[in-house]
Amino acid sequence: MHLPRYGNKVSGVTPSTRASTNATGLDRFFKISERGSTPSREIRGGLVTFFTMAYIIVLNPLILAGAVDADGNSITGGPQADLAQIAAATALVAGVLTILMGAVANYPLALATGLGLNAFVAFAIASQMSWADAMGLVVLEGLIILVLVLTGFRKAVFSAVPRQLKIAISVGIGLFIALIGLVDAGFVRRTETPPVPVQLGLGGFLAGWPVVVFAVGLILMVVLYARHVKGAILISIIATTVFAIIVEAVAEVGPTFTSQGVNPKGWNLTVPTWPDKVVETPDFALLGEFSLFGSFESAGFVTAALFVFTLLLADFFDTMGTMTAIGAEAGLLDASGNPPDTQRILVVDSLAAAAGGAASVSSNTSYIESASGVGEGARTGLASIVTGVLFLLATFLSPVVAIIPNEAAVPALVVVGFLMMTQVKNIDWDDMEIAIPAFLTIVLMPFTYSISVGIGAGFIAYVVVKLARGKVSAIHPLMWIVTVLFVVYFAIDPLTRWLT
User: Fold this and answer.
1) Contact between 187 and 211 (Cβ < 8 Å)
2) How far apart are CA 178 and CA 169, in angstroms?
3) What is the pTM of this model?
4) DSSP of 321-385, one letter per residue?
5) What proportion of the chain, given as a percentage, has pLDDT over 90?
């Protein structure tokens, strides 16, 4: 079910042969033929990645709008946040940085405001200082990561991780994104009946038209993929969106959250209806609204420093896991499990973190949803440029973007999660020194809803098992450093209480 990977033969023609016969400027720059792809696949892949992660344009404003600073003001400095301003800045930064990833690093990886991190910034950091001060911390964290990249430390840490542990990270992320898709579609929900944490649909049953739309989309995508139909994921998203619009027109389902309360059978995020207007003029008033060192005065040095450390570690390893998973699915990793031009990927990602803070929309980071574009055939930075251009257009075409419901896009995450899961066979499960860390890495990512937690637990377990077997010399020095940092990361709450 996998599309042709890097270095594989396609239709009896090797990538190197095809590169010499189709030596266009575009092909040479992006190494399209060399990586076993075509321009049409890259365009389709870029489109699919955008559709799969376009929800962030809607979701980020909703999360950040709930942030209230120490003075009781919202993001815009008043009692009410402007959702349109946040959406415009979110799409702008995502577009510029994703294009930069494609042009500079030539990697099929898209970037946008990091989910999880944005909630942490909004509710944990912003409550203790002004929003501008909080964004200053995000900028500072991005600049620190950039320094770590330019000095070679971040790449060195990445190279020090054992190859099979990198495979476990990729597999864990596959399960994680599949769970994201199932939860976002309402197929899996949190239960109110302890001790069971999650359940099928509502009360153990699938209920509501949005879940039906998701199920139809997933079945259609699986059928098309199994039959090797070109553009299977993209075709499914478009067809399911049309179906969703028809369903809403007939059944009038409405959103999950309404002024009258919660409608558990409603659409998760966007209601699929054709908008009254197609184009809106974006408002970029939030750009530049940050104070680089204001947090150290308003919240104190220790508190600000601990916040920076938390953001730093989460950003540092989330990207490591994401770019490994994308590279593994695309067949772009070398024998050590490293993607091509790792340094460039990390530089762009570091700039994204700082750019998100400078635009006042929280840290931007690499998105695992990029795997959906890879599943559609993306292998180069051309796909990222397509995704980035669509984000820039979305600053003007936000009403059109809002047509696509989550339920139509997230089946791609489930399918790609399956594809990434197939790599589990490359882990030596008879070797306890890698099997136990790999297991913890894989299961804790979906169970804790965090890539960083899974990576941290795997690293700590790897060092502990090596120590238990008396193989201290086999532990890379950087693994010691990272393990200690993760111990601090997991103990950040008691440390914060003790130091402050």
Assistant:
1) yes
2) 14
3) 0.76
4) HHHHHHHHHHT---TTS--TTHHHHHHHHHHHHHHHHHTTS--EEE-TTHHHHHHTT--SHHHHH
5) 44
